[in-house]
Amino acid sequence: QVDVVESGGGLVQAGDSLRLSCTAAGIIFNNPDDLTVGWFRQAPGKEREFVAAIWTLTGATRVASEVEGRFTISRVNARNTVYLTINSLHLEDTAVYYCAAVRGQRLSDAEGRYDYWGPGTQVTVFS
């Protein structure tokens, strides 16, 4: 069983930056299992959507085209943690941000490919 938990959300002003963290428990990155860790978000009244994913073994990433250039995903294996850095926050970035994980290299944008989900962290952007 892998548990993932998000942190770092909050109330932020448009134009600012924010870094979200996703920490995994019950597994050590790449020892022996590598993971794909993904970020998704769900805005009010909308379906959950893919944001970015990273493979813990090589650091290979995939970022949704809608946020590419503003969102960066990274990992620190020694901390069992994946980060999502959001620059130049927009009002429409307001959402609950979820971290999800699956063993192996997937880099998938499909929710169904992920086995482990965190409870989410709220990001609210104000003008």
Describe the structure.
The radius of gyration is 14 Å and the shape is globular. A hairpin with a 4-residue loop joins strand 7 (71-76) and strand 8 (81-86). It contains no helices and eleven strands. The model has no long low-confidence stretch (mean pLDDT 95). By secondary structure, the protein is an all-beta fold. The strands form two sheets. Strands 2, 4, 5, 6, 9, 10 and 11 form a seven-stranded mixed beta sheet that branches. Strands 1-3-8-7 form a four-stranded antiparallel beta sheet, with no helix packed on it.
List the helices and strands and how they pair.
Blueprint: E1 3-7, E2 10-13, E3 18-25, E4 35-42, E5 49-55, E6 61-63, E7 71-76, E8 81-86, E9 95-103, E10 116-117, E11 121-126
Parallel strand pairs: 2-11
Antiparallel strand pairs: 1-3, 3-8, 4-5, 4-9, 5-6, 7-8, 9-10, 9-11
